[in-house]
Amino acid sequence: MSGSGWVGPGVILDKGKMFMKKKLLVCLLAGALLLTGCGRGDAAASYQKGCQALEEGDFKTAQTHFQAVTKTDYYQAEAYRGLGLAQMSQTDYADACVSFEKSLLHIDRQDERFYRDVSLYLAYCRSYNGQEDRMAEIYDQLLKKDPDDAEVRFLRGKLKLNTGDRKGAKADFDAAVAVDQSYDLSINIYQCYDKLDQSADGASYLEHALDLANQNGGDDYSKGLVNYYLQNFEDAKECLIRAINKDESDSKAVFLLGEVYLKMDDVADARAVYTKALNSKKNAAGAYNGLALCDLRDGSYESARQNVEAGIALKDQSAEQGLLYNEIVICEKLRDWQTAKAKAAAYVAKYPTDELGVRENQFLKSR
Description:
By secondary structure, this protein is mainly alpha-helical.
């Protein structure tokens, strides 16, 4: 098993690129399409069908529709962007780079939002082709246009950190934090350091997030989350219990409390938290995932598989990704390598931007 082991139901990990956590803006300019003239109307119809297929996760059909539009004289920037998204979603990063480059060639440079959007996707795909220098060029160009773009500052800082430029990374991270005073940003920065076993260097950003929470009267869940990452588990537990006492329906706090108990090696209390959530029928899929984590900790792998399968059967989108990833982990624990390989391949097809899943898939392919 190559990754960190499992994905809990309460904490959303940084998936590599901050902007990738946002929903794909599929039909970014769909409202601007003008159905005038036969050729233009046909192109617009194909483009809309491509957008719909992309939203539905039917990437091959989306690719076919967008390719049809690229063969017309209309909506070239939009169509190549859509084609790039379809290719990226099928982990075809090399062809996606070509499509995004063609989109940029057809973009009206006055449309800064569209230009930035496509540029970030291009940079993301370049990361899978080992083209860090060309990624840096994209971030540099975007920051020339808007030096206060905190998201791009973060992305460039992450790239610098990953390529050994720790001083340059800190400068970009500090500039991003100066603009964006959010908990999420500080936690994402910490995770960049943590992934490289440099958590001590990133701890100051978590402390900054905690200071923000205390100064701004931040909610108990946010304080608990920051303390979780600081490994102040007792403080995290107290914050999360307060949050739950105020609102028992706060599923984020409930599931994170379960993870805190697991970090404290208190499997019994973690199991109690997830069982109560399951009995309340609130986010039952997430509760099944939590129970599977308890089973994994206890070495009860068959029970873990049953809980994960029960969670997946509920078809709850909010918990599905964690359940599907943990299903791979359980298959590995059971030494069912063929099933693990198949599950990992299906996982990356569904979540191509999840770095943890991509690494797991690569690990299983090498076996």
